[in-house]
Amino acid sequence: MQSLKDVISGAMSAPKYLTGDKAGIDAFIDKFDVFLFDCDGVLWSGEHLFPRVPETIAMLRQRNKQLIFVTNNSTKSRADYKKKFDAMGIEAYENEVFGSSYSAAIYIARIMKLPAPRNKVFVLGESGVEQELHSEHVRFCGGTDPTLRRDMQPADFQNIASQGSLLDPDVGIVLTGLDYHPSYLKYSLAQAYLRQGARFLATNTDSSLPSAGTLFPGAGATSAPLVKASGQEPLALGKPSQAMMDAIEGKFQFDRTKACMIGDRLNTDIQFGVEGGLGGTLCVLTGVSRKEEFLAQGAAVVPSAYVDALGDLLG
Amino acid sequence: MQSLKDVISGAMSAPKYLTGDKAGIDAFIDKFDVFLFDCDGVLWSGEHLFPRVPETIAMLRQRNKQLIFVTNNSTKSRADYKKKFDAMGIEAYENEVFGSSYSAAIYIARIMKLPAPRNKVFVLGESGVEQELHSEHVRFCGGTDPTLRRDMQPADFQNIASQGSLLDPDVGIVLTGLDYHPSYLKYSLAQAYLRQGARFLATNTDSSLPSAGTLFPGAGATSAPLVKASGQEPLALGKPSQAMMDAIEGKFQFDRTKACMIGDRLNTDIQFGVEGGLGGTLCVLTGVSRKEEFLAQGAAVVPSAYVDALGDLLG
Questions:
Q1: pLDDT per residue as tens, chain B (315 positions)
Q2: Total Cβ atoms within 10 A of residue B16
Q3: A264, A289 in Cβ contact below 8 A?
Q4: Which domain holds residue A258?
């Protein structure tokens, strides 16, 4: 088995630029049986589908490749993602999607397995997290509960300080995803739960969310206030956490050396593939990372190959 | 002039415990002409006044001490603070109060002096920040604007990405205080301003806010999502920033060696006094820091003296 050092050294050779190189593209695709895709920044940016993505996915299916869509976006469940693929005109199936919310739900339900009754999850996030927790029969509160989106009142400070009715005694885990509805009340509750010893998990801690061709605050911005207030760092269960890679391998059963991770971020997608010992990584330049970052001398994370856009794989 | 090293070494001798030591208290008080007070955690915790605080303040006034109330709480203006002192029954005057919002307003108006028109401030904070900016004739937007507390819509992503109507072209500074009304829209706007080159300031970056006898998220939790999303750290203008000490000295004109900082936090109040070369620092144990932290071998910040509670100075 390769050591992590070997794996990283191996990947550190100069990445191959494949755009326009038809023979290079064919040889690259032939090396792999499985392609793991990041979604935001690779297939689309928010609601904007990148050119020739449906055709590229169709081409890979025609060549009998197994496709797995690995996303850190916690706001959507696998079922939500299936709808998005349909709306975008991309052939994809719910059981091909592996999201950070699903990864977190599996970790909580099958690995942590906290004893009842103190095994409820306080969620700072959207319905994608809730749906995946529900699918794994994990109890939760917070999340999209509209009563927690209100202003903090003086009585709330007293209530929380005296461990009053606002705090659910069954909460043993605080789980943060990307929350489009932050509130001071929710953060106050989360801080109180952590002070009482709740475990701190995050679907992922991406600093930013690519959308509409630019960057917006990511799930890491949702956990950041709590990190600052509590002095604790969450265990992140999305890319580049290898807990997610292990869960994916356990579900899909594939040979890592015949798998390739395709993504737009060096410090999540590409690092995820490199540290996971995959046979290859492909960086697309339609998202967060710029080629200057991995072409620079001494770059920390370097993909095996790169293209300007995913559609370039059509040649 | 003492070097910083001398100052810190000097302060590193074992702190004197003054509670119950009447002669020690008298000698300590006699050493100083000026007392700088932190407020939250020293005089009160949220709406809870600590015992014998009004009497202690009165005693110091009777002994002709100059009193300055130095607070990192950005949600209140000096005028708001005066009202709080009155409600608590503590004799204090508006011109004795020096808050982090006022410190930030002075820094922006008198030191940065950005050229018009790109000198408007986008505020993530409450009315205390707005009032102090207004008092220094600094233009601002954001803050308590209720239209920014709404949910983020898909069109908002497009608008911000295309530098549309949601973004004010005059903004050249993003200033964060403690914001009880965070919203994803506000953070998205702030991130866009920083990407366009706006300067990043914070009234302070306290991790927590003492209230009702426990800890809630502080102003550092307001700036944290933006730090994560932008990769930038703000210039903080509250304690322990020496920009604040310089501004206080400029306003009140005193001999630092005859001044003592009283506070409950080692890494803000006490550090502020030590690094500022004040003659002494007094830690009270009614707030954030525990005596074990500064009595430990190799403690990073050590006060000259400590009491269990401010009222202990009455002997």
A1: 455 555 554 445 799 999 999 999 999 999 999 999 999 899 998 889 999 999 999 999 999 999 999 999 999 899 999 999 999 999 999 999 999 999 999 999 988 999 999 999 999 999 999 999 999 999 999 999 999 999 999 999 999 999 999 999 999 999 999 999 999 999 999 999 999 999 999 999 999 998 888 899 999 999 999 999 999 999 999 999 998 998 898 889 999 999 999 999 999 999 999 999 999 999 999 988 999 999 998 999 999 999 999 999 998
A2: 17
A3: yes
A4: 4-72+240-314
**Residues facing residue A92 across a β-bridge:** none
Residues A138 and A220 in one domain: yes
Note whether residue B198 is domain-resident.
Answer: yes
Are B201 and B249 in the same domain?
no
Q: Is B86 inside a domain boundary?
A: no
Does B85 reside within a domain? Answer: no
- Spatial contact of B244 and B252, defined as CB atoms under 8 Å apart: no
Note whether A217 and A182 are same-domain residues. Answer: yes
Q: Token pair 């319905």 is at which residue?
A: A127
Hey, is the C-beta of B228 within 8 angstroms of any chain A C-beta? Answer: yes
- The last residue of one of the domains, among B212, B236, B260, is B236
Mutate to test the interface with A, among B194, B209, B228 (most CBs of A within 10 A): B228
The total number of structural domains in chain A stands at 2
Q: Which of A207, A236, A265 is the last residue of a domain?
A: A236
Instruction: Tell me whether residue A33 is one of the annotated catalytic residues.
Output: yes
For residue A303, tell me if it sits in a domain.
Answer: yes
CA atoms of A282 and A291, how far apart (whole Å): 12
Distance CA B221, CA B223 (A): 6
Task: Identify the helix (H) or strand (E) that includes residue A177.
Answer: none
Chain A contact for B207 (CB, 8 A cutoff): yes
> Do A281 and A306 fall into the same domain?
yes
User: In the numeric block, which tokens belong to residue B294?
Assistant: 């500064």
B176 and B151 in a common domain: yes
From B163, which residue of chain A is nearest by alpha-carbon distance? Answer: A214
Cis peptide before A240 (omega within 30 of 0): yes
Does A225 contact B224 at a Cβ distance shorter than 8 Å?
yes
Give the Å distances, CA to CA, from A160 to A36, A37, A122, A191, A227: 44, 43, 15, 10, 19
Are B62 and B136 part of one and the same domain? no
Q: Is the distance from CB of B75 to CB of B40 less than 8 angstroms? A: no
Paired residues of A35 in beta bridges: A67, A260
Alpha carbon distance B69, B96 (integer Å): 6
CATH number at residue A16: 3.40.50.1000
State whether A206 and A281 are in the same domain.
no
Probe site for chain A from B48, B144, B184 (most A CB atoms < 10 A) = B184
d(CA A224, CA A230): 10
Distance CA B204, CA A126 (A): 30
Bond preceding residue A115 cis, omega within 30 of 0: no
A288 touches A264 (CB < 8 A): yes
| Average pLDDT in chain A | 94
A73 touches chain B (CB under 8 A): no
